[in-house]
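Appendix C reproduces, verbatim, an entry submitted by the partner laboratory led by Prof. M.T., so that reviewers can inspect both the input and the predicted structure.
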Amino acid sequence: MTKVFISHATADRELVETAIVTLLNRHGITTWYAKEQISTGVQWEKKIREGLESCDWFLVALTARAIASEWVRSETDWAIENRAGRVVPVVLERCDPGQLHLRLRLLQFVDFQKRGEEEKIQLLGAWGIRPEAIPDSAKISASDLARFDDYLYARPKNWHCIFCGWACDESNNDYICKQCNQLRPFAGGSATMKNCRNCDGFSLAVAEYCEWCGQHI
């Protein structure tokens, strides 16, 4: 299974989760990224190294803040040396990637500033995912409800409770919410789904919150 380390500036975490993590997870790509602050530099370095070594791909989310980040610079240095051919630079905001690492200029970038369907296709193409795999939100009915007879509903690894929005980051949790104690209903083929306007993800029609990004639907 493909696993991608996502390098980003701390200030960009919410943007990265919404624009990149949700999209990759929805298409079967496992992601590793820093979700919380760690008290000491030693602990932080250990955690980051473990994350880097556990992933076979490296994606760097490029913004002016990322370029100014020493951690992003260090992570990118490591990836250039250890993940050659598997480094994906993604431009989220206008910036000069060469200021982060000179060799980034030699790599093909994904311009993700607009984050439209064409940009999503280009990003997923880095892992050979076919454009047809992307749900076309423009074809969803006005009620934002759709029935997918041939769509096997994918569930995010890092999910949000569809009833209260609680964010779960427990790998062994089988969709049992520890905030409202409700269990996410089963969904399979022919399930009725609801499209999130914030991240374009799909949740069950009974959802009050998007399980991909946690936004109220």
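Strands lie at 3-7, 30-32, 57-62, 87-91, 110-111, 145-147, 192-195, 202-204. Additional entries are available on request from the coordinating office.
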